[in-house]
Amino acid sequence: MQNRTELDIREQKYSDKIVTIPSGDSILETLDLDTTKIKSIKPFSKRTQYRAIINWLTKYQPHVDSSNLEKVKGLLEAFYHLCEVEEWERVSKLFIFPLNSSSESQLYWLLFIWGYYQEQLKLCGQLVPHQLQLAREHCENGLKIATELGIPLAQECETLLQQIENKEVN
To answer: How many domains does the chain have?
Structure first.
């Protein structure tokens, strides 16, 4: 059960530490989103999605005592709005976006460490039809860890992996 100990250490490391969310402007820069070009996006429904992405990244301010999930809510909402406009490369960048300088602080991984397994699966589920390799890697990793730790997610991960395999075959 060495993996459980490693996860416990990482969970302690990240649950005690305040996760610093980079500024919205730096995230927009990473995503290569230019706020000055939003007004020219057509149709209006697509422009509305981009406006929501920008607002979630730049205006959302969680309360100081918020849960970790609340602290990353702006990133998650931006992720889902990017999915709506089918910006899969940007979605992928946000999925693996590091919240601190460590590779262990990527959004999807922190969700797992914090115990927000269903949220992590939702992100993977959005990627499955579009970013097969990225989704496969993280679903397989999540499945392996969930199975070893007895976390009741094995079925959800298996389902996502089957969806990936079906997409690759078709």
So the answer is: 1
